[in-house]
Amino acid sequence: MSGRRVSLIWQHDPTIYAPPKYRRACRYEAFIPDGLASRALRLSGDLAGMIAEADAAVRVLNSGARPALAPLARLLLRTESIASSNVEGMHLGVRELARAEARVESGGKAGSTALEIMANIDAMELAIHEAATVERFSVAEILAIHHRLMEKAPNAHMAGQLRTVQNWIGGNDYNPCGADFVPPPPEYVDALLADLCDAINVDELPPLVQAALVHAQFETIHPFEDGNGRTGRALVHVILRRRGVAPAYVPPISVVLASARDRYIQGLTDYREDRVDQWIEQFAAAAAAAASLATAHLDAVYALSASWRARLVASPSAPRADAAAWAVIEVLPAHPMISAPVAAAVTGRSKPQIYQAMKKLESAGVLIPLSQGRRSQSWEAVGLLDLLAGLETGRGPRSPGGGALP
Fold this sequence. Notes:
Layout: E1 3-10, H1 20-23, E2 26-33, H2 45-63, H3 70-87, H4 94-105, H5 112-129, H6 139-150, H7 189-200, H8 207-221, H9 228-242, H10 253-259, H11 261-272, H12 276-314, H13 324-331, E3 337-339, H14 340-347, H15 351-363, E4 367-369, E5 378-381, H16 384-392
Antiparallel strand pairs: 1-2, 3-5, 4-5
């Protein structure tokens, strides 16, 4: 990516609580990227072929989408959001997060890390269901995604607010001198984001190339004091949804990026140092791997759902075809731990019907009760969290006996 570096002076500040060497004035360089919307790009034949293969893999992932499988779409979106948080060092065990979700859905409380990860899920949903559908994407949509992401964070005061100060990556906490990367000064942010939105609103480049460039440019601008990485990865899915490549299922690209975080950071550096082809190649490979991984896991979750139905059919008191228990099974992939109020809300069935359904599913071995008190009782869907643990860490699905599924 072409651009220019500007040499600036960090002013002496005797008031900050820091070792003396960090209070002194110092010189640093900030990088101001050229605009993206008017950038000319030529792809080699090999790279164009690789991009076409990745595009095809994402389209194959989406080819089996049907309205009845909507819970699977939320499962993938949830996985992508969790992995995007993992890139930023926010880690929570699969079961711990699922329990936290179930508590919050039932009106309870959760820890700060769980709340931030759940906010990232909300921000991703906003990105693909609302921001991706506007006729002309604008900075307002970026601010909305960021606001949804940060509104429950400890630093919620900056939610949806562009930075007015210099930020930096790496180095020390007190000044940008010696930082690994210094984004453009704040007075450049508005114009660069407007240009970025212009680049999102055109369709001259292949969708995956457009997504790769927009993401890297956004991370280079770094327009917020916090939450840039998660917001920038949400923009990837805005583009893939707007361009029609991923109309139903998001490929969990962040799962692949999180599994090789240092390489991902190096890819963004490659972009800034005008090795754009290398970054696009890395991004396309991550998209293809994510799509293949997701396809395998969706097949496994679909097979698991079939096994739940078989257990219910084989149970001593198999319910009628229109019973609520079948409706609960349909929504379980989106809710690996589920409470009765949530089940009632997402199925449209009455609470008495739901409690009866949960009892039948529990006796059939489909649900495992996690608590005894009826008021806050929740259940775990048998086998689902084990599959999600594999998906979130980039492993292929495994059979009940422990071997990898074909």
